Amino acid sequence: MTAELVRGQNHPLDRTRVEIRVAAGGPVVAGVTLGDEQGRLSGVEAVAHPGAPRRTGIEVPRQAAAEHRIAVDLDALPAAVHRVSVLLALPSGIGGLTAFGAAAAPAVTVTGLDGTGLVRYTITGLGAESAVVAVELYRRQDAWKVRAVGQGYADGLPAMLRDQGLPQAAELAAEIEEAVGRGQARAVPAPAPMTAGRSERPGTGPAAAPAPDQPSPAPAPAADGPTPSATGAGAASGTGAAAGPGTGVGAKSPAGSKAGDLPPAPADGGPIDYRHPGRRSTPAPAAAAPSSPRPAGPPTSATGPTAPDGSPQPVAGDAAGWSMDERLYNQVWGMFEDLARSVAAYRSAADFAETRLEQELDRALADPRNRLGTAGDAARATARDKHATLVTQARAALDRDLAQLTAESEVVEPALPPAFARWDNPVWQGYHAPLERPMALRLGDVHLPEVLDLRIPMLVRLPLERGLWIDSGPDSYGHPGPERDIGRRELPGALTDGAPDEAERRRLSMEAAVAIAARLLAIHPAGEFAVQVIDPAGAAAPALAPLVESGALPAYPLPGAKGVAAVLEELTRRVELVQMAVRHRAADALPADLDTAEQLLIVHDFPHGFDDRALARLRYLADEGPAVGVHLMLVADRAQSREYGPVLDPLWRSLLRLTPVPEAHLADPWVGHAWTYEPPLAPSGSQVVRQVLGRLAAARRPS
Fold it and tell me: How far is 29 from 66, CA to CA, in rounded Å?
């Protein structure tokens, strides 16, 4: 899934060979500067531009164009290079543009070499600027990240180069202009507008950055809403439902799209193709020889199997990827995006219908003569009939999309590997310890109130770059309205009669933490992942029993401040030693008694039992631990830490908040839907977690 960034936000890169794709509303010049730790340039040789398109590890296009592709090999860069900045500038005399504000906002997408979108940033808010630093790739502790910059310069290319510390800025800018002028005949015009289909997100306005596992606000739908003809799920237009560009799984960026990449929009309210344009369709089987009868089964088409009525049938793994796990991962996120857009279209259409009803009623009642009598009644009835018709049409389009997504979910869910599967999936019955680490982890499910039966797996990439916080506080069940009732009906056992009390919330929180820890242990090769627990009050013993009985946790944690200090000291020592070994490339020098397996630290009832020294160490582990394989999970009530003041605010903000009971608190990255999160608990009375941990323990024993 492509992460949508906003200005100033950063995102880690999981690879060092990438392609940077630029899409603009007119011809632009693309270049790259190679800066030191402060972003300063050593000289003109640190700039790749149309006159000198190749530098070590960098290659940029030679001409101005509306679309560019820049090749970057971060491993090949000199050791002194710490920042790779992508520059965009408007050339003089090409396309007639003198300011970025006069055209559509340019977008930059960082992709893998196979075209998989990693990060996308749409540079909004530009006006008179004629040059802009779009994004920068920067090195931090031997890892690379990408940051959305969007710094514009009204004085153009010379001012931008001068700001990066280049004394010869004016001379180099003139050289670039001359090189662009020589290639003016090759300049590529802006692509023609393309009609959007269901699987294309509209490109109106910026979208918030995070994935669904990173809650943040996003822009609301357009105020005027879609036209009646655009009320179908996923309708995309300038006034469409889901505001925000995107190149996530299944949605192609403008830089890499072609006219044939997207399915045509359905006409006359016909069925909508459920498939993402970026998903790989199952090829049709080769034609059988005349002497061979055609195999029995549903008819097929060039795009995959179809139902008897000709509609496409869902296929598990129908997405791009190098392995089945990657294809399923991309397909799940494609389903998430489809559902987000479909519901956004429905909600926007319903809002439009409501606004139109109010306007028509106001117009009908503006004339005092129509306020009484049959004329006024007829006007009100007509307005309400139009409103009902629009809402009915929007709901019908949504129901078609939901039916297709539900059918896809029914096919995909049974095909998921253990790392992506629910605890009640039969795949766990045949579990055996894996030989390699998976690419992602299922942290639970998310759903929307418009369809209660469709759950989308909440997947996060591994290794975990953010710590987790299981919120045991009283507000974790505080979502209002029908979602609250939905949550109640789904709570197990005694909880169905009402919201759990404080003690029950704490128990459920620790059970959710143990379920996630058990899953992490089970999906890693035996011995390559370990769990440590801090439980100062000793209240988590019942929930920890499966971990202790299986040997995944050697013993119940020591109570009190002594137990807190012992675990934190051990993990702090591990982080420091591994950091030094990585920094000096001396892994062989690590002590023999150091456990190099990845570690998950579960802290129960935080901040009980923590003094200032322990808090400092915990924050250190939260900041530095993930890079060297130490991950954090807090089970805590946020309100209980208020006594520490703002010192813990950075810690809370760095953690992904999860809840032990269903709650609508996660926002999607495009339209800000309030998704209801459900924790990954095993079915009531099930022994699947103990069975899986037992098999993992058997795999750890030497043969």
Answer: 9
